[in-house]
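Structure ticket #2291
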Amino acid sequence: MTTRSLFAAVLLCVAVVVSVRAQETAGTPTVSVDEKSQLIIDKAIQTLGGQTYLSVSTVTGRGFFTSFNQGTSQIPAKFLDYIAYPDHERTEFIGAGIRTIQTNVGDSGWLFDGAVKTITDQGPSQIDDFKRAMRTSTENLLRGWWKKEGGKITYVGRREAGLAKRNETIRLTFPSGFWIEYEFGAKDGLPAKLIYKRTRKNPDTGDEVETTETDQFLKFITVDGVSAPYVIDHYVDGNQSSRINYETIQYNQKLPDSLFAKPANVKAIK
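Resolution: structure written out below.
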């Protein structure tokens, strides 16, 4: 038996126990993962780099962010993104010669607007957007952070994903009822897509409407033993709203706490 098959066998045993009897220890959120879903998660982790992937603590990415308006791409903006797992992120954008910075640390965040040279705290909706992005990410699923909230993972089935291609689909449902579906290539095990629903305000009427949001992962490249998508397309109700296109990704670079701390004033921004 190879190391990989042994690892899969161990996870299978764990999955059976977890699926039959969820964690019900006092003070511990109830979680469960069915057998088939655990095997899909295990395959994805191995495909992305196994223990090397799980050992990543920071990610530094550079590239271009492009928004779309009614199917038409707008002028791309350069970005520099710093992530320190599990809940620190700083993203710098440069577009039309103007630099903006969005930084989040857990339940807090701040913004630097280079156009008017101001630093402000993020509002509740901006904090919620960040937390939703982290909550729905494949990192949250594969690294098991979701277990802190409790939840249930179930196998959904196979879906068409192009000519002679299928995706295996699993669903993570939180106690609140909020869910995310994750699709992985049936053959290669790579993350292919994630889908969830959210409530938004219609900017024209002010009414709340439910939308379906989708991330599609493309162009996987392996660096230092870790594979990651270099293109991420985001869709709202089937219409593309943005594209992230990485040029470079570096792992486990030392990121000082000061990088995420809110500056005392504009002059203190580096």
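Closing remark: Confidence is low (pLDDT under 50) at residues 1-25.
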